[in-house]
Amino acid sequence: MSFQTSGLHHVTAIGGDPQRNADFYLRTLGLRLVKTTVNFDDPGTYHLYYGDESGKPGSLLTFFPWKDAPSGRLGTGQATTTSFSVPERSLGWWKKHLEASGVTTGDIVSRDAEEVLTFRDPDGLVLALVAHQQGDPRDPWDTALVPGEHAIRGLHSVTMSVTREDATAGTLTEDLGLSFAEQDSNRFRFSAGEGGPGATVDVLVTPDAPRGLVAAGTVHHVAWRAPDEGTQVAWREELVDRGVGVTSILDRQYFRSIYFREPGGTLLEIATDQPGFSIDEPLLELGRALKLPPWLEPDREQIEAMLPKLDLPSENNPVRA
Hints:
This protein has one domain: 2,3-Dihydroxybiphenyl 1,2-Dioxygenase, domain 1 (Roll). The radius of gyration is 19 Å and the shape is globular. The protein has an 8-stranded mixed β-sheet. Strands 6-7-8-5-9-12-11-10 form an 8-stranded mixed β-sheet, with helices on one face. A hairpin with a 4-residue loop joins strand 14 and strand 15. Helix content is 16%, strand content 33%. The chain is an alpha+beta fold. The protein has 5 helices and 16 strands. This is Ring-cleaving dioxygenase. GO terms for molecular function: dioxygenase activity. Keywords: Dioxygenase, Oxidoreductase. Residues 7-132, 154-273 form the VOC domain.
């Protein structure tokens, strides 16, 4: 493969009630809502982007929240765990914080050089916090509820569940340019570049698990980074030449996207790093207003009437000195 991703760009999941979703990710997890927009393919629902201060690639977890969405089913053919990176020795604080917020957590477990705390969001989406001994230099979004010394640095990794690993491994290495890093029983780890937080995917082989159903509480797709549009165009051409069923390039306003499904069933995306989230509102005001792409602006009044009211907690835009 001529092209290699530098790591995760974002993960997109299906949520339920949008207000409950925003309260959890802004207040309980301490992320920032960097963009409030709509699902471009279904503008009757929000598309909410959570990340660090500016929504840098690799920090983002996004949601399509439908208030009455049915619950999904975890299983093979999907990403079954989304993990965030936190500082070393922070998991004790996080366990107390989450439990005080009414979130049931698992035990803190050790995996080689990492400690992991697993829990679920209000819709059942499986999340994990991972503390790596080598640390994570990325800057956090610092709020009063989740101070910077413990705050999430960005995505750490995703876990994809499959019935067998060989074909999925081929996609990760040949189509995305990842490299095999290590195996721990039925868990196979692949890394972009030198690996580490934000550049890792685990492939979990569970041949007897049921097939997953993508709905509320599950991941819709996993996006990987491309540096620019030129690279993405050439990358897509190479994927087509290799026989991969890849979409045309789609304008997502804040990045450009192509999508394809790996043989195990998980929907993957390659998204550009640019232009970013500050192209239509200032950095200090990210996420405050409903932003629509130009082709949906003529329908703004109708779209706003369909969307439920969303009250953002003050923590999303604290006063900056």
